[in-house]
Amino acid sequence: MKTLSDAACLNEILDRLKSLRPDSPRQWGKMNAHQMICHLNDSFSVAMGRKHASRAERPYGPVMKWLALNMPMKWPQDVPTRPEIDQEKCGTAPADFDADLQTTLSLTQEFAQEPRSFTFGSHPLFGNMKKSEWMRWAWCHTDHHLRQFNH
Asked: Looking at residue 39, which CATH number applies to its domain?
């Protein structure tokens, strides 16, 4: 399974991020490419304990977490996100594409580096996670949104 703990997987994600353009066409969903990189920035900030996101109702949270992180499947499209990381609600508004993309690249690298300069936060749906789960989540979440823009 791919994870940001693996240097080759990290480099693959970084290269895919670098290939994004402001006009990259979406395959599904409502976000444009610029909103998506701001969503990734907000999501990494939540994961790194630097931003708060409200908890989602999670009657099947442990089962959903296990499936999302362990099953060899692509994540489903059009799953609603928390308002704090939704760029059409309370998420960080896009500013300058190149600067926002550089923030994404920096946050992705910081998230994967050892030793860490942060303490993991709590996932809004999955709750507290181990380092290995966060690294798998980060790869899956970023991959999901890159596929949204065919990258």
From this structure: 1.20.120
- To 5 degrees, how large is the angle CA 109–CA 112–CA 116? 105
Return d(Cα 143, Cα 138) in angstroms, integer.
Answer: 8
The total of structural domains in the chain comes to 1
Select from 7, 13, 26 the least CA-distant residue to 138. Answer: 13
2 part of a folded domain: no
Give domain status of residue 39, yes or no: yes
pLDDT per residue as tens digits for the range 106-136: 999 999 999 999 999 999 989 999 999 999 9
Encoding tokens for residue 72? Answer: 């060899």
Assess if residue 100 is contained within a domain. Answer: yes
Cβ atoms of 39 and 91 closer than 8 Å: yes
Beta strands in 16-74 (DSSP E): none
